[in-house]
Amino acid sequence: MKTLNHLRFYVGTYTDAPSTSKGIANITLDPATGELTRSEDRTSLRNPSYLTTTGDGLYSFSEISQEDGAALQFSSNIGNTFLPIAGDYPCHVDIKAPYLAVANYGSGNVSVYLLDDNGRPLHAVADLYEEGFGSNADRQAAPHAHQVTFLAHADQLAVVDLGSDRVRFYQFDNSNDRHSFQLAQSIAMPAGSGPRHLVFNHNETRAYVVCELSETLVVLTKHDGIWHITQQCELLPGVESGEAASAIRLSGDEKYLYVSCRAQNKISAFDVSGEQPIHLNAYDCHGDFPRDLTVSTDGQWLIVANQHSNNIVSFHRNHETGEIAPTGHQCSVDAPVCLVEICLMEDVG
């Protein structure tokens, strides 16, 4: 008999001491219980802090300075490809064929690469950089690109810049091998908010932005092709900001939103099924410093990577209410900072 559908997750980590991680870890979730089991590591790589996958393979990088060898890595059945990154401390990667984009936090620029038909990165075709700074002198003295996301329904790349309090949209043209990226809109976020990551609804008419420094949720709405700020609310109402909000995820049915708050060790949940986000609850992350989280593709589970306590924890998720409950299961991974799911079909007898 075949067909027990397991869930597998690749885990990006920090490998520099005191961490003992070697690179990209591999864990499996039992869909009957939520139990997490660590498998053999996927690949060795220094500080692979963010990952993404396609049918072609697995993409990551080393989050280090350009001087120390910041590089993009593509792993596939035909081997590994490495390309140097012209930027410092890359922190996010996204793909929309024929392009791959990398956000470089330290240098503030975005590196765009051309992919071949097998998904292998060939060479850089664009370097995007905008001057800017914010009101937080300690964190915003210069641009800090923190996320890159290609839109599904438009030839655009969204860039979230924590350093200059901006969300930017670049229009790109790959006709006739032009590889042109032009700034189409630059949205000024609330001063000192430090936007970190965003998620879009399926139609890409609304975006939810988690702001790291202000620990707020900002809603962007698109009207006549232009994005506008329409809502702003606290991630943890009545709680002092720790300037450390992190990951954001939208449920597949677009009804519920989850955000990790690292300073308070909380997962904040919102009902976003209506016109305005409604705060539902804040949950203990069962660890220290929840760097990343993800909602499984079947919607049943929420998985949290706690960077400082070196553990990954599973929660069962209620489809109807959006509430989450700890399963009591966890596994150990040193300095986990990114979770990417892959569905896995296994023989079970």
Number of domains: 1
CATH class: Mainly Beta
CATH architecture assignment name = 7 Propeller
What is the residue-averaged pLDDT?
95
Structural class: mainly beta
Task: Give an overview in words.
The chain has strands at 4-13, 23-29, 36-38, 43-44, 52-53, 58-61, 71-76, 79-84, 90-96, 99-104, 110-115, 121-128, 145-150, 156-161, 166-173, 180-188, 195-200, 206-211, 216-223, 226-234, 245-250, 256-261, 266-271, 278-284, 290-295, 301-306, 311-317, 324-332, 336-346. It has 349 residues and is an all-beta fold. Strands 1, 2, 3, 4 and 29 form a five-stranded antiparallel sheet that branches. It has a four-stranded antiparallel sheet with strand order 5-6-7-8, with no helix packed on it. The protein is globular, with a radius of gyration of 19 Å. The protein has one domain (4-346): Methylamine Dehydrogenase, Chain H (7 Propeller). 0% of the residues lie in helices and 54% in strands. β5 (52-53) and β6 (58-61) form a beta hairpin. The model is unreliable at 344-349 (pLDDT under 50). InterPro entries: Cycloisomerase_2, Haem_d1_sf, Lactonase_7-beta_prop, WD40/YVTN_repeat-like_dom_sf. One of its GO terms (biological process) is glucose metabolic process. It comes from Photobacterium gaetbulicola. One of its GO terms (molecular function) is 6-phosphogluconolactonase activity. This is 6-phosphogluconolactonase.
